[in-house]
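Write out the bound-state structure for uridine-5'-diphosphate.
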Amino acid sequence: HHHRTAFEAATKGFVGGKVPLGIKRKGLRVVVTGGAGFVGSHLVDRLIARGDSVIVVDNFFTGRKENVMHHFGNPNFELIRHDVVEPLLLEVDQIYHLACPASPVHYKFNPIKTIKTNVVGTLNMLGLAKRVGARFLLTSTSEVYGDPLQHPQVETYWGNVNPIGVRSCYDEGKRTAETLTMDYHRGAQVEVRIARIFNTYGPRMCIDDGRVVSNFVAQALRKEPLTVYGDGNQTRSFQYVSDLVEGLMRLMEGEHIGPFNLGNPGEFTMVELAKVVQETIDPDAKIEFRPNTEDDPHKRKPDITRAKELLGWEPKIPLRQGLPLMVSDFRKRIFGDHSDANP
Ligand code: NAD
Ligand code: UDP
Ligand code: UDP
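---
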């Protein structure tokens, strides 16, 4: 059905559909929750560049003002400090819902808050979408597949998730967020989109967020040993952030609800990743083995056939090309060269 724009909403009711002089059609009005975070801030850059009016809603738990500061003073940009667990009234056309800590260290820090953010926060943003007729995109995660028994993971796979483990606040939180999204679609006719994002890296990641790519890069730059957890034979598939942002925008603009896997099928063991980091930064970097964390998934690799066919999307940047782009950002932030603060 028809997707109402803020322009149409604002001009609804004018006789004969005529728009009064002085009201001009502009870009869309878009909310990005979690827009001061890693992925969100790169998405905001693209939306602003294409002429949209962007409202970032963020509580700065893991996000930083520095990530969006270069838009301050732009009349098309607005930053609201707000926690999505609380209701929010806005008039917009599209909602990219990213608010949620993504790194295991951060989401385990206060698991009850994590599940509230995923459940109550997503409910509020769906309520908002319903009230104003906005299109809603959920950034779900490959974690909905848990410790997968199918490899690579297809969207039709229901997953293997521990409901009572230390990762459950995130995994089950996102699974419930997907359920809410589909129920608002079926029950309240909200236009929805669901992305299942696989491990993503790039400039602006939190330096000390504990994720494997940020850890290895920061460790190699600081001349510390790279900490491989467990035997290092577990795998992940790493996607560069600009590929993800392109996929999210295609999904939002396209006709398909999803869910869609958005990830790079290039699969690496943690030992192989450590070797790529050594090659990129410091061939003399030491590797140190540490005990693994609880419930760590053994392997993860997206099947992206659906996104290729229905969104015409596939990642363009392999790990060996993307990693150096992140390294130069980390170098500047760790060693304090601020000559280019906006990678
Ligand atoms: P991030 O931690 O950098 O960004 C999350 C943002 O949400 C931060 O700015 C944080 O301050 C904000 N936030 C958290 N809780 C909030 C709340 N209650 N109210 C308002 N704002 C809140 O993480 P990211 O890597 O940019 O992830 C963005 C989204 O993508 C998340 O939903 C995450 O689950 C999803 N995702 C990311 C990855 C990845 O590898 N980066 C993988 C799968 C899914
Ligand atoms: N909500 C919001 N902004 C809005 C509309 C709704 O934050 O513009 C919140 C609202 O407070 C509620 C949730 O979204 O907690 C779900 O709203 P809905 O209208 O679907 O349900 P109801 O309010 O009837 O429980
Ligand atoms: N890992 C590691 N060393 C680190 C941090 C993580 O070997 O310093 C491993 C971790 O055990 C997991 C993988 O890297 O197997 C990916 O972890 P991350 O926290 O980046 O993301 P996840 O995919 O688990 O959410």
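---
Residues 104, 199, 211-212, 215, 227-229, 234, 236, 270, 292-293, 296 surround uridine-5'-diphosphate (ligand 3) (CB under 6 Å).
DSSP finds ten helices and 13 strands in the chain.
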